[in-house]
Amino acid sequence: MRLPFKLLLPVAIVAGGWAFASPWYAMWRVVTAADDGNSEELRERVEFERVREGMHADLRASRDDGDSDLLDRIGDGIVTAVAGAAIETAVTPQGLAVLLDASTVMPGEDWSWDVNRTGLDSFTAEASLPDGRPGPRLDFERDGLGWVMVGVRL
Fold it and tell me: Is the pLDDT of residue 1 over 60?
């Protein structure tokens, strides 16, 4: 009876450590790859198409205010076209590197990151500046035993 316990205890410790640490490690890998300008690693760890789709969905939802008059539809069309083009241009490894560089918002500052689990298969990484102002929120989902970034909220 003692032998199975001796085998299960290390396995439980490793599994618990992985469950706690793997989201932090995944977030760190994305942020470090962005800081280093490592486009290849970002392509491996970020599903850019899903990030773009999510940002387009957020844009459409923000423009749906119930108005249907001609001027409102024209304005919505212009905003959607311009912002949609900006999303397509910005959601790239290089664009993500700029987004994750806090010094573009506050020169000389760095983001402070906090990881929050949103379920067994998902978590968010939320950035803030030292003065408490919020930064981007990165959404991650499980991919096998690892994690992949699937969304950004600004």
Answer: no
> For 2-153, which CATH class?
alpha beta
Rounded distance between C-alpha atoms, residue 34 and residue 42, angstroms: 7
pLDDT at 45 over 90: yes
- The DSSP symbol for 66 reads S
Give the C-alpha separation, 53 to 87, whole Å: 9
| Residue that the structure tokens 């700029």 belong to | 98
Task: Please state, in angstroms and rounded to a whole number, the distance separating the CA atoms of residues 38 and 84.
Answer: 25
The answer to whether the beta carbons of residues 108 and 126 sit under 8 Å apart is no
Residue type, 143: D
Count of C-beta atoms within a 10 Å radius of residue 151: 21
Q: How far apart are CA 55 and CA 48, in angstroms?
A: 11
**83-86: long-range contacts (C-beta < 8 A, 24 or more apart)?**
83/59, 84/56, 84/59
Q: What is the pLDDT of residue 7?
A: 79
Domain ranges of the chain: 2-153
Residue 2's pLDDT is what?
66
Contact criterion met (CB below 8 Å) for 149 and 139:
yes
